[in-house]
Amino acid sequence: MKNKELADIFDRWADILEFMGDNPYHVRAYRNAARLIRDLSEDIEILAKEGRLTSLPGIGQRLQAKILEFLRTGKISEFEKLKHQVPDTIFTLLDIPGVGPKTVKVLYEKLGIRSLEDLKRAIERGELLKLPGFGAKKVEKIRKGIELLEKSSGRILLGVAVFIADRIVNQLKELPAVERISVCGSTRRMKETVGDIDILATGKNEEIIKAFVNLPNVKEVLWQGTKKASVIVEEGEQVDLRVIEKDSYGAALQYFTGSKAHNIHLRTLALKSGYKLNEYGLFKGDTLIAGKSEEEIYKSLGMDTPPPEIRENTGEIEAALNHSLPKLVDYTDIKGDLHVHSNWSDGASTIEEIALKAIEMGYEYVAITDHSKSLKVAGGLSEEEFLKRNEEIDKLNEKFKGKIKILKGIEVDILPDGSLDLSDEILSQLDFVVAAIHSRFTQDNTERILKAMENPYVNAIAHPTGRIIGQRDGYPLDLETLFKKAAETSTALEINAYYNRLDLRDSHCRLAQEFGVHFVISTDSHHVDHMWMVKLGVGTARRGWVQKKSVLNAHPLRTLLRFVKEKRMKFGVK
DNA sequence: GCCGTTTTCGGCCCGACTGTTTTCAGTCG
């Protein structure tokens, strides 16, 4: 799949044009194309073959020609010429907060600055102050921006953002001064990584701001005004709070939730209908039409309210206008976790502790899925040990009868040849079997997984692509073949909710659902304190337009067990 | 560079904030 490579080229292309001072709409066309291609769930090569490139919104004749040239030759000649005109170290300068293309251009042309090191040296020597339009404050802002950039590791994992945002919202909502409060931005959209954390509130603004900057976990106050403030929390992440008038709360929530592409589309629609939409409300002339709630705004524009997770301008606005939005799986739908490790293998919690946590979370069932023997580093269990562990589960099921059903599970290793490292005899005695790959992360593993799916006892493939966010790309896979086989063999695909996995990712979910794939949303917890992460998985599923009916563990135990039984019957085993 | 139920040319989302300005440019979300 060449989608990412191509998206990177278009992004860099936009950077170069921006730096060269090209028409901003020209730049935006490349930026949009990059984003579109990066988020595409289908292989761009297949789209090209089928002649569907120009049916993508934002791809016209000229971009199509460039894409085709890239697919044919691996290069785009126009880009090859262009990129040699600008030193590529210069683009790190654009990552400095407060520094944009115009500033970089001046720095480069007047002082020959082409890297972060150059810039730091020039600031020390006081050279920037001599430039027109550069005063002491601006230089100080750049200096602080560099500091911030070097400190931050880039984007925050969603799990970390949700954890911090929930904590702050819970602390603040207890205050009498706070009327309403909500997280917004990409955290609310449950995007797998988040730039900074945005929180929106309404109420007595000065009291709220004061409480916010004085929260116990705040390490540093970056900026504080009467309507907004920015802080760094002890985890090192930036959190912004805005306080808004209550009549505009819905409009502000809509606006600050984004995405940017969704908002641009929405405002264009508003404009065509003779309205103006901004963060204060929907206006006809100077008259406020709607603003108290998001629903009010969308309704006034003749549409249903798209769930925040799908506001990415990938068809949700059209669906909202047609009143055909999908009914997405909800956070409260999950009836049990189907991937949890106990201290029989490499988990830290006992089976009893896991059961108690599952009861606390309101689950109907939970599957204990310890590792199998070949995974020695993770304390994988032998066949005898599994049988002993199962006896303990039987006892606990007696004890917790009527409160929770503990399922005998396993995360069985898929060996390099696609076979499993436990006998069918043992597997047949388990309630739910999850199979996964834990080795050879660079080779194409399609055949290996297809073969595992052919085993009648394998009910789900755990973390199907093997990616770790920000650390390791998934191994190469033919996703469409995989999805087809999963649907055929009644093998579910896991949406692993552990915070650095989220695998399948959102775009894969959307494509898989079209193939009729069933999903399980599970946490891969190794401690009961990880089990809350299920909501990260549900958020990912929702971003992939996944409906409740496609998610096995959004249904009662008997539905789950029927799915297991159906596969065994399909393959003629008991 | 894209796009069209007012347009195949002339638009392209909108406002806040900051810093340098004396009317505005740059950056951000």
TrEMBL record:
Any GO MF annotation of the entry: DNA-directed DNA polymerase activity
CDD domains: NT_POLXc (cd00141), PHP_PolX (cd07436)
Domain of life of the organism encoding this protein: Bacteria
GO cellular component labels: cytosol
Keywords per UniProt: DNA damage, DNA repair, DNA replication, DNA synthesis, DNA-directed DNA polymerase, Methylation, Nucleotidyltransferase, Sodium, Transferase, Ubl conjugation
Keyword NAD: no
Domain DNA-directed DNA polymerase X: from-to ranges: 1-312
Enzyme Commission number(s): 2.7.7.7, 4.2.99.18
GO annotation, biological process: DNA repair
Cofactor: Mg(2+)
Catalytic activity annotation: 2'-deoxyribonucleotide-(2'-deoxyribose 5'-phosphate)-2'-deoxyribonucleotide-DNA = a 3'-end 2'-deoxyribonucleotide-(2,3-dehydro-2,3-deoxyribose 5'-phosphate)-DNA + a 5'-end 5'-phospho-2'-deoxyribonucleoside-DNA + H(+); a 5'-end 2'-deoxyribose-2'-deoxyribonucleotide-DNA = (2E,4S)-4-hydroxypenten-2-al-5-phosphate + a 5'-end 5'-phospho-2'-deoxyribonucleoside-DNA + H(+); DNA(n) + a 2'-deoxyribonucleoside 5'-triphosphate = DNA(n+1) + diphosphate
Pfam family, one: HHH_5
Domain Polymerase/histidinol phosphatase N-terminal span(s) in chain numbering: 336-416
Main location, first listed in the record: cytoplasm
UniProt keyword Transferase, yes or no: yes
Domain spans labelled Helix-hairpin-helix DNA-binding motif class: 51-70, 91-110, 126-145
Annotated compartments: Cytoplasm
Classification via PANTHER family: PHOSPHATASE YCDX-RELATED
Function per UniProt: Repair polymerase that plays a key role in base-excision repair. During this process, the damaged base is excised by specific DNA glycosylases, the DNA backbone is nicked at the abasic site by an apurinic/apyrimidic (AP) endonuclease, and POLB removes 5'-deoxyribose-phosphate from the preincised AP site acting as a 5'-deoxyribose-phosphate lyase (5'-dRP lyase); through its DNA polymerase activity, it adds one nucleotide to the 3' end of the arising single-nucleotide gap.
Protein name, per record: DNA polymerase beta
